[in-house]
Predict the 3D structure of the following.
Amino acid sequence: MIDHLHYESKNPVVIVTGASSGLGLAFARLLDETLPEEISFWLIARNEEKLRRLADGMQRGTRCFALDLTKNDFLVVIEDALRSDGATVQLLVNNAGEGIPGPFDEQSVACHRSLCDLNVRAQVSLTSIALPYMEEGSAIVFTSSVAAFLPQPGFATYAASKAFVLSFGRALAEELRPRRIGVTVTCPNPMLTEFFTSEEKEKLLTSYKRFSIEDPALVAKKTIAAVRKRKVVVVTSRLGRLVRLLSKIVPQRWIIRFVAKAANEKP
Ligand SMILES: NC(=O)c1ccc[n+]([C@@H]2O[C@H](COP(=O)([O-])OP(=O)(O)OC[C@H]3O[C@@H](n4cnc5c(N)ncnc54)[C@H](OP(=O)(O)O)[C@@H]3O)[C@@H](O)[C@H]2O)c1
């Protein structure tokens, strides 16, 4: 993809999930600036109005799919579109995700299910239906998180979902190597996006995590650079790389206890 665009490819498309805000929006804008106009964009999120506004500013054919990725019927819509357009997926950015901080037993089963459906099931399912429409040189991005490196009391389901994405992406990268389809898992630190409520943002800005805040535009840039280099895992900040290293050398139970203690002051 990107550097190895096959101009003979039929209907080349880039799919970005969670494109209506935050990191997904940053991916869409960056890719619009850098990719040839022949490649169409398929943008997915629930908020149609935001998607349309973004599409209006794009320099290419852009389709908006206002879909809830926690519902099974999104698969039918995307699979039908891929089939009827005879599309070639040059890049799939599996980015949409959610996370509600707080103790596990204080959250509803509906919250936990929604998170697993969006952060795990949707990413696996969309990848599965898009793969037959990929070719040599195509690429897949998964948005994981630095939270993937450690179990995180106070954010347990979220951190576990991101660990799943990291593990899945790494294994898939190896499986798809013979087909020359690249897989990159990106692991950012906190970003001040709509992922957090304003109250959570305030807490974040007063917690130890404030030193690790990243800019979504920069995360997108580093991630796409990693896709170009065929890097499988990219940790987009120095602090994130330090956390990854510590998670390998310090006994995990110590770090988990530290995180649990700090949980009261973090979003
Ligand atoms: N922000 C952080 O601190 C941080 C750190 C590390 C990793 N990440 C990861 O980065 C990714 C992007 O998050 P972000 O920070 O950019 O958050 P964000 O601004 O809240 O963006 C989330 C995107 O996902 C879409 N989305 C949410 N629920 C959806 C659903 N059920 N169906 C379809 N689309 C849905 C949202 O659009 P609609 O509301 O229009 O559906 C939005 O476009 C996530 O995977 C997140 O876990 C975030």
